[in-house]
Amino acid sequence: MAGRLQSLAGDEAAVRELAAPSFAHLLVGVGHVDPARVDVRIEPGDVDELWARRLAPFAANLRAGRRAPRRRQAVLSPPDPTWPAQAARLIARLVAVVGDPVVRIDHIGSTSVPGLPAKDLVDIQVVVADLDMGRRVARRAPEAGFVHVAGEWFGEDRNGDEHPEEVLVDADPGRPVNVNVRPLTGPVWREALRFRDWLRTHPDECDAYAAMKQALAGTTTDVDAYSTGKMPWIRAALRRAER
């Protein structure tokens, strides 16, 4: 496959960039392959399109430190049973690069809750000892196929207080991803796990959250406003979970 793509694109550096790590940035299945086991499945004649639509832009984005374009409207997708497997491959890329300094890495957000409609965007949380370690992880993001988003970023706890973090996003135009790198000393990472597990174990809460999200997506045109609009419900759910 790599040789074929190399001859098609005439861009040997881009092919080497994607192929260099000891892990796969992108797993491609040809023909009848279980979609949960690969990042993208194609037919034998679709290689040219795959290169033009996904692989070449992926490599170009990594070289430029540029995030992939992303939809700006909140559109919810039906639950996808392959989301956890996709998240596991993304986590494997991070583990291969950052290794032991990381305390833990988890799949969080709506795509981590079975049966819950969600934006087709996988949320990953990386917990590190402190923000200095978070910045070290962020500097190595391109090695794992991600882009560090410069600037000051904050995660909100259940009281609405902000806590600094680092954010990585997708260079791959075919798989939107948010990676929140959070210090162990802050409360946000624990609350993200608590909220996920609360929804996983309380079907009534999961159904209520899904209904709220559907209603909000139907009345909100901007994805940032959608994310902000969910927070009051999430804070209240966290208080219920703690009790």
The CATH class of the largest domain: Alpha Beta
What's the gyration radius in Å? Answer: 19 Å
The total count of strands amounts to 8
Structural class: alpha/beta
**CATH structural fold name of the largest domain:** Beta Polymerase, domain 2
- Approximately how much beta-strand content do the residues carry? 15-25%
Order of helices and strands: HHEEHHEEHEEEEHHH
Account of the 3D structure:
This protein folds into two domains: about 1-65, no CATH class; about 85-240, Beta Polymerase, domain 2, CATH 3.30.460.10. The strands form two sheets. Strands 3, 4, 5, 6, 7 and 8 form a six-stranded mixed β-sheet that branches. A two-stranded parallel sheet has the order 1-2. The protein has eight helices and eight strands, in the order H-H-E-E-H-H-E-E-H-E-E-E-E-H-H-H. Helix 1 crosses helix 3 (about 45-65), helix 2 (about 10-20) crosses helix 3 and helix 6 packs across helix 8. The termini are far apart. The radius of gyration is 19 Å and the shape is globular. It is of the alpha/beta class and about 240 residues long. Strand 7 (about 160-170) and strand 8 form a beta hairpin.
